[in-house]
């Protein structure tokens, strides 16, 4: 054995540069020049510390960035069974995150799974072919909503043709359910609504935008 700056003191080992092999049953502990360590069976020294198996530490394990373990001061902090990070952005698939959480990759997806209800889940994703934003449900086994790259919203369809394109039925529930059709080209508008007292269906025409002010004309139908 050729020792160079290797110290054993109170169950701690300081390694400068040495060549030392100690056999422990079927495993090996290898201290190899210059100051590298390997622990495990059939190990090959490649880094300052190579371990084949698990590491159990009652204190902290540190590197040039920070520490993990009890009392550690790494990027992530522990509070009971929770961990948190309260400074900067987190990147998954990217080394340059621009938001608090930044996912990058082919069709990046966030899954929200409810383990208390049969593991039903919703996927929120950026579709990799079209670039659409989609919400996909496991119970539906289909897309619940799509926003395409032009800003059109589709419900029940993945190819919306207008700002809002619904394939199916629409229900409006309110004391005064109404829809305002605002023509931004003419500055005039139409209001479709149900009267809360008579239950009449009424269409009102307004000479101004946003269905506001005095209406000019109307038509109504009674049930």
Overall 3D shape: elongated
- Helix and strand element order: EEEEEEEEEEEEEEEEEEEEEE
Count of β-strands: 22
Strand content: over 45%
SS-derived structural category:
mainly beta
Largest beta sheet: strand ordering: 13-14-15-16-17-18
Please give a handful of descriptors for the protein shown.
single chain; 223 residues; mainly beta; four-stranded mixed beta sheet; disordered N terminus
Summarize the structure.
The protein is an all-beta fold and about 220 residues long. It is about 0% helix and about 45% strand. The protein has 3 domains: about 5-55, no CATH class; about 100-170, no CATH class; about 170-223, no CATH class.
3D structure, described in words:
The chain is mainly β and 223 residues long. The protein has three domains: 6-56, no CATH class; 98-170, no CATH class; 171-223, no CATH class. 0% of the residues lie in helices and 45% in strands. It has strands spanning 6-9, 12-15, 20-24, 27-32, 36-40, 49-51, 60-62, 67-69, 77-79, 82-84, 90-92, 101-103, 109-114, 120-126, 133-137, 142-147, 153-155, 164-166, 178-183, 188-194, 201-206, 215-221. The strands form seven sheets. It has a six-stranded mixed beta sheet, with no helix packed on it. Strands 3-4-5-6 form a four-stranded mixed beta sheet, with no helix packed on it. The protein is elongated. The N and C termini lie far apart (102 Å).
């Amino acid at each position: 054995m050729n020792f160079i700056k290797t110290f054993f003191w109170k169950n701690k080992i300081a390694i400068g540069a040495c060549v030392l092999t100690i056999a422990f049953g079927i495993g090996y502990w290898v201290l190899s020049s210059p100051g590298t360590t390997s622990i495990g069976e059939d190990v090959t020294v490649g880094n300052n510390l190579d371990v084949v198996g698990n590491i159990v530490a009652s204190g902290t394990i540190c590197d040039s960035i920070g520490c993990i373990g009890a009392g550690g001061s790494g990027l992530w902090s522990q509070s009971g069974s929770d961990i948190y990070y309260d400074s900067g952005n987190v990147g998954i698939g990217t080394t340059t995150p621009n938001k608090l959480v930044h996912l990058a990759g082919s069709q990046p997806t966030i899954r929200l799974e409810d383990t208390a209800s049969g593991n039903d889940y919703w996927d929120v994703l950026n579709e990799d072919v079209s670039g659409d934003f989609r919400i996909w449900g496991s119970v539906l086994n289909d897309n619940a909503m799509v926003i395409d790259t032009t800003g059109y919203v589709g419900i029940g369809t993945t190819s919306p043709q207008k700002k809002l394109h619904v394939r199916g039925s629409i229900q409006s529930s309110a004391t005064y359910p109404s829809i305002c059709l605002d023509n931004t080209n003419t500055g005039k508008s139409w209001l479709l609504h149900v009267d809360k007292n008579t239950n009449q269906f009424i269409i009102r025409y307004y000479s101004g935008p946003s269905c506001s002010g005095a209406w000019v004309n109307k038509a109504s139908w009674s049930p």
